[in-house]
Amino acid sequence: MDALIMAGGKGSRMGYIEKPLIKIKDKPLISYVIQPLLESDKINKIYIATSPNTKTTKKFIISIYKDYKNIKVIETSGNGYIEDLNECIKYFSKPFLVVSSDLINLTSKIINSIVDYFYYVKSKNPEIESLSVMIPKNIYSKYTNPTIDFNGLIPVGINILSPKSGYQKEKIMVIDELIINVNTPEDLKFAENFLKKR
């Protein structure tokens, strides 16, 4: 399966800075996402969607990962997450993994389990087109306050989508492991403390 990292947002909740390049322990957020994708034996190509909002992120990726043949930068308009995602669909012919660029504790093991689960579910029900990964609120709220809550489930920032626009028949995957998504300055402080303790 190929993967798409969404890295073209305006970073409005972080004061309009390039969130993918925010450093924690001298490492930019986006590198915390790229590394486990590179380590996963379930992932082939890695596409990274940048935009006019993240020009420095694009330069960083091209410079640091220039020797990786399986990493490709996609330029999007930067008009919004959904708009940028729709602009990227043409690069895929099969279901693909979509990951936010601001997850600090993603692992190849988690990625592999998500990909395997999607194909398992699809083998049982071929109509399933997408997968949304969630964490129970009670696990998340032990550590920090969630920004978004869907009936007691917190979106992780990881999905699998089919290469088509519009509605997709979705399955939810609930995992019992905290994955930290840095959306706000408060999330950033929590993420820094979390990684210090590891």
Automatic annotation (TrEMBL):
One Gene Ontology molecular-function label: cobinamide phosphate guanylyltransferase activity
Pfam families noted in UniProt: NTP_transf_3
Keywords: Nucleotidyltransferase, Transferase
Domain of life: Archaea
EC annotation from Swiss-Prot or TrEMBL: 2.7.7.62
Gene3D superfamilies, sorted: Spore Coat Polysaccharide Biosynthesis Protein SpsA, Chain A
MobA-like NTP transferase domain residues: 3-117
InterPro entries (UniProt xref): AdoCbi-P_Guanylyltransferase, CHP00454, MobA-like_NTP_Trfase, Nucleotide-diphossugar_trans
NCBIfam families documented for this protein: AdoCbiPCobY_Meth (NF045495), TIGR00454 family protein (TIGR00454)
PANTHER family cross-referenced by the UniProt entry: ADENOSYLCOBINAMIDE-PHOSPHATE GUANYLYLTRANSFERASE, MOLYBDENUM COFACTOR GUANYLYLTRANSFERASE
Name of this protein: Adenosylcobinamide-phosphate guanylyltransferase
Upper classification of the organism: Archaea, Methanobacteriati, Methanobacteriota, Methanomada group, Methanococci
Name of the gene: cobY
